[in-house]
Amino acid sequence: MVLAAGMPAGASAQSSWLPASWFSSGRVDPKAMFPLAEKDGPWLVLATTFRGATARDEARTLVQELRGRHSMQAYTHEKAFDFTGPLPGVGLNPDGSPKKMRYANEGQVVEVAVLVGDFASCDDPRAQKALQRIKQLRPESLGGKGPKGGLVSDFLQANSGLVHGGAANRPPLHAAMLIPNPLLPDDYFQRQQVDAFVAEMNADVTYSLLDCPGRYTVRVATFSGAGTFQQGDGNAAGTGSRSGFVDVAGFVEALRGSGWKDPKLRGVQGESLLVEAADRAHRLTVALRKQGWQAWEFHDRDESIVCVGSIDRLAVPGADGRPQVHPEVARIVAALAPDQAALASGQIVPRSFDGVMLDLQPKPIDVPRQPTRR
Hints:
- The protein is of the alpha+beta class.
- It folds into two domains: 156 residues, no CATH class; 176 residues, no CATH class.
- Helix content is 26%, strand content 24%.
- It is built from eleven helices and 16 strands.
- A four-stranded antiparallel β-sheet has the order 2-5-1-6, with helices on one face. A four-stranded antiparallel β-sheet has the order 10-11-7-16. A two-stranded antiparallel ribbon has the order 3-4.
- The longest helix is centred in the last third of the chain and has 18 residues.
């Protein structure tokens, strides 16, 4: 206390030995709305929603308070609803014409949501901690009475008798919840999710595709394996190489280590096409990295693949407004596709690095996701 009192204003905030989270993140632009973007999230805490003519001003004030006073990454997301005009009804009129309906309360409504992010998943410990913290907040901009014009506040006021203890004593943001980023495409959370076994196979791979931060990547090489995993105590190891079985423990150890040619790791598995596929994928990944490419490797039960790039979207708006292939995707495909000069003369010559050939047709794919608990 004495030390802090003797320090100049603002000096304590710059002390390197104090946690940065103790201080405000800095001055917040009073006019900034901090609109939500597709790159934010992908999971966020929906703090509250404002509605009506003052929705933008109320949302802006709350976002500025969350960012400036509470050091939270807060955003606003605006959406307009048009409740005017006729609607198709159910059934037919006596003359056979289709019935038409209209909204009981016609008008155009603007809603502005205030969200706090950015979290990797709904199970992210940071997300759960932030959610509980937001639920207990009593922001000064809300006066501790709930957001004016907010949908949650409207519901609680209309149904106060159904809420245990009433809504008056509850923090204004107690109804906050975790939601996915509404700007993400519908198929974002539908991409391939590997199971725990495949995740273990790729756990300690240096350039694992599971570590790729982008939404998409470009597959440039595929190596199929004819082997099959032999799970158990490994008693069938004596016939493993002849029957095509690969011991799980040995294969995982091979993936985790950098010594692919270690006789102890290759032993019985040496004749397996599955291990050979993983070996070639690893060599190619290292060779591509040495040439400056952002290469990734991924090993599954029946094949290993090598990918290049970390891309958030496959298409971008062109000069005429029409979508076109993302420049990075086009660059990767053009550089790693078969030699165009040879192709023009009728020869298909795949590219190769360190003696390992690439696929004839590089292809954008979804980056597989790590398994989640939910």
